[in-house]
Amino acid sequence: MNLHRCVNVILVGDHDDPKEIVANLTCKMPNQHFKPYLKQHLPKRLHYANNRRIEDVHLLMDRKWHVAMWTIFLGFGPSFNFKTQVPVFENIELYNVMCDVTHLPFGRPAVLFQTSYAQLCHSDYCSGYSHVLNMPLWSEFTLTAQVEVPAVSSSECVRADPRLDLTHTCNSYSQEPDVTHAFLYPPDFSVAAEARYEASLITNTVPMYPAFKSKYCTANRNVLRRYSLKNNGINVIMGPIFDHDHDGVRDTEEKIKEHALGSVFIPTHFYSIISSCENLNETLDECDGDLRVTCFILPHRADNSESCNSWEDESRWVEDLLKLHTARVRDVELLTGLDFYRSTVLPYTRVLTLKTHMRTFEDDVNRCYEPLDVDSTSCRCDSQCVETHSCCFDYKDICLLPTESWECTTLRCGERRLSDSKCHCSDDCMSAGDCCTNYNSICQERCGTSAPFMQSVFPSKTFPNHYSIATGLYAESHGLVDNNMYDPVFNASFSLSSSEKNNPRWYQGQPIWNTAMYQGLKAGTFFWPGSDVAINGSFPDIYMSYDGPDFFTIYLEEPDSSGHDYGPVSGGETSCERKEALQDFIGDVNHLYVNEGPFGRIRAKNTLHTLDAAGLVANMSCKRPEQQITPYLKHHLPKRFHYANNRRIEDVSVLVNPRWLFERYPGSLTFCSGGNHGYDNDVYSMQASFLSLGPKFHFQTEVEPFSNIELYNLMCDVLEITPFHNNGTHGSMNHLLRTPVYNPSHPTEQSSPEQCPSGSDINARLNLSDAEDLNHTSEDQFDALTLGNVVPVYPQFKRLWQYFQEVLLIKYASQYNGINVVTGPVYDYNFDGHFDSPEQIHEFVAGSPIPVPTHYFAVLTSCQNDTQTVSECSGELQTVSFLLPHRSDNMESCADGQPESQWAEPLLWMHQSRVRDVEWITGLDFFQDSKRPVAELLRLKTRPTAAIHPKA
């Protein structure tokens, strides 16, 4: 058998169920450094499921064992800002930036798909109730830092909503033993009795698995409280997601109905978008600057097996789980069909940046010799970390090197002062007069526009990412899902050493050189993946030197070659002693093909046999206390991965913890030292660099990180050509250009809120309507909750959702000085990352009136200035979004018997997404009522998850 060395190796079997493989790989060892996943269970931020070439089983290595997965971005030229640093972005955004460079021609979320829904506003929250799904598409509320949450949860009873003529009642949930209801807006967040009653309406409920609810909801409540305290209030948007086909786009209503559990439509995920003011001195209401946004997409599972841990405090593992499932707001948008941040005062381009920003949690700079936190699950930078083998990967370079060296490195620039340093590279060293001799050349040398890093697409491999830059597409969309892959329709394998590499059938999308040529420009490229293939029958132009090309690309083997040989920072990062073997989890692997390395995919060796993917994942999940892999069905992967909607993506994916590797059987992976990439693309070491220089770019400017899919549009703008269809968000990179050529605008809303058929006041003290016979005593107000705020959820998922509402939103509101929250269901049964049509949803929930969401989304918005609240924010906004898989178990977190505080938040952050992803998958468009420029809003929506971190 040919096994790919130190890359993804695929296991192929005659009959094994991928679910069984994943179950056998999950939580098997005390020190397991990877997690196995079915590809549909991979974090949505990876966008790595919707392709047939992606195997069913994948392994993600522990982040503590990651090597460098980020890349560099530099922009220079007349169209770019000068000496400007921008926030982190994903590399898929580069396509649109390139097109822009070539000059090619906060309110309720907007619903960008045809449906019937009502906007219901109450004392403390607003929601968009879907008549089709019998649950809210979103719930939005602001949590101030001063809010006091009762220690005892309110009643679980649900009351009818007199404003709507609903046939959906609590009985709809009680008829299904495997699902219960949860409140999208936590009633406990309301102080007044009337407000708590309003949150008890049926229109505030979603369907949820009991295990998900019992573990998640309470812990989430505490997490939100902490966020609110730390951020001076937060805005929270939450809701369900339906992505049953795992394509990363909202399922149609027809498809959602096909997957109904009886009469209940079960979300596959739940999302949360938490926003606060960047200036912590401002509340959201006062915020006149930028926003800070955190987004999660949590898989709705019937168990909590994803988190293999033993934390007694539920909020700890819930927060860790949230971190794992971080996403961009844009991811939530894609998965819900919603559009967020329409009423913010930020420019639309800034909103796009927030939406496409991916918040990550690997920010280890300035943590040197921090106090030891014995409860911390992340890597450490204290003086004992060497003895415990828990140091962050850059500990030596950031914490030890300054005491031994007289020079600055790029990692040291902006460091916190250390008393034992020979010289300093901190921002104040010039005024202190103690800079290292090369400080100016290393830390101050800025010409064009750069970003701290540029987020790679998942998997963080060479061919997928270079082709993402050229097309602006995720790997699942352009078809190059790995350096090595198998296409079941072609019945052929692709590798860098095979002749198939030159076959155009593997290359989907339109690379930038073709875009340029089709619009009359001359294009040249040099050693760029795909450039030597006749894609769509075309090669790049070749011209004489006197008539040089208008567009040119070049690929250099460094630093990739040295990174593989020696590691990204301090020598070898992976080790042959840090490997997890599939055979140790399931036994016989002769019938399986395994893609080995830092990210695993598994398929049956005999293509005529069907792999039991779910059984394989179950057999790999939660098998050991320190398991280093997490198995996923591909449609359960975090939506931020964008890794499901391709037949080349196997059904079972295995996420491997950083610095660990996954192999078929012990010893099968022999090349296992040095550095490697392919891990979770939120990991700092997986990011790329960006530099730009030229007359169109700002001079000496640093911008926020962005995703590499945005480069395609940027390159088109620089070339003054019109971008071809891509996954980037055109206009989100305008802030890099001196004179942007593309002026984005809000999409046209397709569905407007309807008027409530009944005019009853839900706070009425007397029954003035013939429509309902409601109780009006103060006691009875707490005995019923309204159906208009209800969505169908699996009982296990409800644990997660309740913890998110009752703990995490309070935490985030506190951290961010209040947050605006929009939540709702997602229907993505075909897991293409876009909202399903009513016909598609009906296909999956045939015979049931209740469509079960595939996911639930949450978009949380706050002011970057955390001294201002969201409503006051005068500066930039920030968001965090989540697309939570709606699953009937919580196996992804290994949560059985564990309190939500130990697994729920990591799961939430694992399924973080961009706001743009939420818009895609829901059909909604957020922030349409915002007065901010559209380009600013696009920047907000496309902010990559790798650049969004939870507050400590």
Automatic annotation (TrEMBL):
Any one GO biological process: phosphatidylcholine catabolic process
Molecular function as annotated in GO: alkylglycerophosphoethanolamine phosphodiesterase activity; calcium ion binding; nucleic acid binding; phosphatidylcholine lysophospholipase activity; phosphodiesterase I activity; zinc ion binding
PROSITE patterns on file: SMB_1, SMB_2
Biased composition (Polar residues): 745-761
Region (Disordered): 741-763
Localisation: Secreted
Keywords: Disulfide bond, Glycoprotein, Hydrolase, Metal-binding, Secreted
Residue ranges the record marks as coiled coil: none
Domain SMB: 357-403, 404-447
GO cellular component labels: extracellular space
InterPro entries xrefs: Alkaline_phosphatase_core_sf, DNA/RNA_non-sp_Endonuclease_sf, Endo_G_ENPP1-like_dom, ENPP1-3/EXOG-like_nuc-like, His-Me_finger_sf, Phosphodiest/P_Trfase, Somatomedin_B-like_dom_sf, Somatomedin_B_dom
SMART domains given in the database record: Endonuclease_NS (SM00892), NUC (SM00477), SO (SM00201)
PANTHER family: ECTONUCLEOTIDE PYROPHOSPHATASE/PHOSPHODIESTERASE, ECTONUCLEOTIDE PYROPHOSPHATASE_PHOSPHODIESTERASE FAMILY MEMBER 3
The protein's name in its UniProt record: Ectonucleotide pyrophosphatase phosphodiesterase family member 2-like protein
